[in-house]
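Attaching the record inline, Q. Sequence:
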Amino acid sequence: MYMPTLGSINLLKSKTVSSSIPLGVEESFRRFSLISVTVLFVIGLFVSGAFFYFRLQHDVLVDKRNSFANEIINYSVKEGLNTAIKERLSVTEKIMNAQRPYATLLDSIGIVAAPGKLTSISVDETGRTRISIKSTNIEETLDMINALISLTKQGKIKGPDLTSFQFGKADDILFSVSFVPVL
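Structure, as predicted:
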């Protein structure tokens, strides 16, 4: 029996064995496989290039969509603020139309009651004004009532009415008068 020696074993074929396929057909198969691999490689490059191009386009469109969405949100906030301002303006306009010039009323009250003598002022929804005055003696009270009569004659107030008159424990006098100011 023949035993191969350590250096005589060869697992690689050194000679090609010819196959049963003719040599021209085998060469055509090799060219076809090489062309097929090349075509598949080129198609893969085109597909991957197209994928990256469309992905880039998609990212640009998503960024535009997000910026438009943010603009819409900003405009809706601005529109809400604008609507709130318009509503406040209409309320302010109603207040300004209903507002009465009380400066002349306060001037008239200042003529009747000296500072420190006036204890309260109230104005109802019809415009009737009620003032409460505290005086220290009857002469001072008469001066205040004469001032009211003078304002009535001047046309600055209408319909004065003495609603209460009280003598206090410390010789002070507390009285209330109601009238309609001419504004």
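Strands lie at 118-123, 129-135, 157-167, 173-181. Helices lie at 23-98, 103-112, 138-154.

More tomorrow.
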